[in-house]
Specification:
six-stranded mixed sheet, 384 residues, alpha/beta
Length: 384
């Protein structure tokens, strides 16, 4: 029976966001205990495609976070060569008609003022970027900053790169956040005993709302289910992350109903990944044949060559959704010593390094690299 395990900070969650928090905290000289009720990347991270995107983000705080993260991902890829399958392949957003292309043009213009690079691709040049793309499209925009990593590998290698300062404890579910007489964090309790630290970071992803409640506060994180189809290994049929313009609207939507928009991308290993669907059905993992049918139809409409390709498997994951589509990042004034790093929805892999850096800066009282006011965890509290 474990009675005491002391560190500078406890990170709850061994997905890519928790791993990034642990990594940057360790780099800052702190000792870190990482707890997860399952394995590394056993939740949302393990079901993710590994997208590092700016192409789908409106100018604002999330885009600022994404741009910072892209810089940090490039640094991590240089330090962990080939280990995380970092691929700066770029994104291609396509429009089926002139109205859609005009909307993309306006969107890209606004993004350009915030630091995003986007190049308009006329219809007759789309095949230069994607030879197997369907004909008859109106045009699109190429985003060279978009990239991809293998998310489970990234989480594992971030945890392994802590210079001995990171102590993972897997299969340990946090049942209680321990607080002192004044309500300040003292550590956490699991079925096997207690872990002590003056700070606890809630990086529990889709279960971040439940962990917050175990600390005595409310954070309205909800699961948003999505499916991915994985094809048999192929030659490089799809060179970029390619998606239709309506994907951007689906990302920003708050609807609980099933939404699908074609998202297709190749991988270094050969399989093509096909998404994307979104719906709020709780933690129901039931296979939705309607969602899979829509995904397959959308992919073959974009890339007719995929019509004869076998799908080897499909899997579901749950995006940690917050009502305003922004993550909760930073200290919670309601419980001194509690910090949150969750609610990133489908962008957690892309936003992980910047989130980890911000958490580490808070823990070490360093200067923050950006305005974090929009990510305040208590912003959902009722106005008195």
């Amino acid at each position: 029976m474990l009675t005491r395990n002391t560190s500078d900070v406890i990170v709850v969650g061994a997905g890519v966001v928790g791993a990034a928090c642990a990594y940057y905290a360790a780099r800052a000289g702190l000792t870190v205990t990482v707890l997860d009720r399952g394995p590394v990347a056993g939740g949302t991270t393990g079901a993710g495609e590994g997208n590092l995107l700016v192409s789908d983000k409106e100018p604002g705080p999330e885009l600022e976070l994404a741009l910072l993260s892209l810089e940090l991902w490039r640094e991590l890829a240089d330090g962990l060569p080939d280990r995380i399958e970092y691929e700066p392949k770029g994104g291609l957003v396509i429009a089926s008609d002139q109205a859609g292309l005009a909307a993309l043009r306006d969107f890209a213009t606004r993004q350009g003022g915030a630091g995003v690079t986007a190049h308009e691709i006329p219809a007759d040049r789309l095949h230069d970027l994607e030879p197997h793309l369907t004909s008859g499209l109106a045009g699109g925009f190429h985003y060279p900053q978009d990239a991809q990593v293998m998310p489970a590998l990234a989480a594992a290698h971030l945890l392994r790169s802590g210079g001995g300062r990171i102590r993972p404890h897997l299969g340990e579910e946090v049942t209680e956040v321990i607080t002192g007489a004044s309500g300040e964090v003292r550590g956490v309790r699991t079925a096997n005993g207690e872990f002590h630290a003056p700070y606890v970071v809630n990086a529990a992803g889709t279960w971040g709302g439940e962990l917050a409640r175990r600390a005595g506060v409310e954070l309205p994180v909800l699961p948003r289910r999505g499916f991915v189809l994985v094809t048999e290994p192929l030659p490089r049929v799809v060179r970029h992350k390619v998606y239709a313009a309506d994907y951007i609207a689906d990302v920003a939507s708050g609807s609980a109903a099933l939404q699908t928009s074609p998202v297709v991308e190749g991988t270094p290993a050969g399989p093509v990944l096909i998404g994307a669907s979104r719906e709020r059905v709780g933690f129901d993992r039931t296979l939705s044949t309607e969602a899979l049918r829509r995904l397959a139809a959308g992919a073959t409409a974009l890339f007719p060559v995929l019509a004869g390709v076998r799908v080897m498997r499909t899997y579901a994951g749950f995006r940690p959704y917050l009502p305003d589509h922004l993550p909760a990042i930073g200290p919670d004034p309601r419980v001194p010593g509690l910090l949150h790093a969750c609610g990133h929805e489908g962008a957690g892999i892309g936003l992980a390094p910047a989130t980890g850096l911000l958490i580490a800066r808070w823990l070490t009282h360093g200067q923050l690299p950006m305005n974090t006011e929009p990510f305040r965890p208590e912003r959902f509290d009722p106005v008195p």
